[in-house]
Automatic annotation (TrEMBL):
Annotated region (Disordered), positions in chain: 120-156
Organism (species): Photobacterium sanctipauli
This protein's encoding gene: proQ
Protein name as catalogued: RNA chaperone ProQ
Family label: Belongs to the ProQ family.
Function recorded in the entry: RNA chaperone with significant RNA binding, RNA strand exchange and RNA duplexing activities.
Primary location recorded for the protein, binned into one broad class: cytoplasm
Gene3D superfamilies, sorted: ProQ/FinO domain
UniProt GO molecular function: RNA strand annealing activity; RNA strand-exchange activity
């Protein structure tokens, strides 16, 4: 039983009608100019064929006659053919010119599209190279492996000396040794070894005379 599964696209339809009418249609090489009104002949011949519809035939025929190989075949001196390959008259010049123009326009569109695609690809490659170069430059940059050390602001060591007994007098400006540093103060009272001093911030405190520095 012949496979009657319906064809699904124009490529399959063209291959099918080329198989059915090999003296008229071809799937490779230069195509022959078709008889004017061949769609009606084709629709009638295949009216009972479950594999194709009129809509599919019309779409496939439009694709076939706009292909480059068909437009190449529409040239001066060529004859149109019917479904059985019979000559149906020489092509008119206006049809030849129309086919030539259509072919040039189609090729120009393809060239423009290819140029656009090439430019887009070049731009993408350039962008990719720039990013890669940036990444390489970043990777090549030597990392600072030197351990950071916190700077400690060390105050210069103050050179002081202990007061002599004669220097421990009220009103004398001295420095009080606080362990972490010397604080400026003024002697306000003396009681044997204990000395009351007033610090620069106004506070008073009692310290041993041995903690006083000049």
């Amino acid at each position: 039983m012949e496979n009657s599964e319906k064809l699904t696209n124009s490529k399959e339809v063209i291959a099918y009608i080329a198989e059915r009418f090999p003296k008229c249609f071809t799937v490779e090489g230069e195509a022959k100019p078709l008889k004017i009104g061949i769609f009606q002949d084709l629709a009638e011949r295949l009216s009972e064929d479950p594999k194709v519809s009129k809509t599919q035939l019309r779409t496939a025929l439009r694709q076939y006659t706009s292909s480059w190989r068909y437009l190449h075949g529409v040239k001066a001196g060529a004859n149109r053919v019917d479904l059985d390959g019979n000559d149906c008259g020489v092509l008119e010049q206006e049809h030849v010119e129309h086919a030539k123009t259509a072919l040039e326009e189609s090729k120009a569109k393809v060239r423009a599209r290819r140029k656009e695609q090439a430019e887009a690809k070049a731009a993408a490659n350039k962008d990719g190279e720039a990013k890669a170069k940036k990444i390489r430059a970043k990777s090549a940059k030597p990392k600072n492996t030197k351990q950071k050390t916190s700077k400690i602001n060390k105050k210069p060591v103050e050179t002081t000396r202990a007061l002599t007994a004669d220097e421990v007098v009220v009103g004398k400006n001295v420095s009080v040794n606080m362990g972490t540093g010397n604080m400026p103060a003024t002697i306000v009272e003396i009681n044997k070894d204990d000395v009351r001093v007033r610090l620069s911030n106004g506070l008073t405190m009692v310290v041993k005379a041995e903690h006083l520095r000049s």
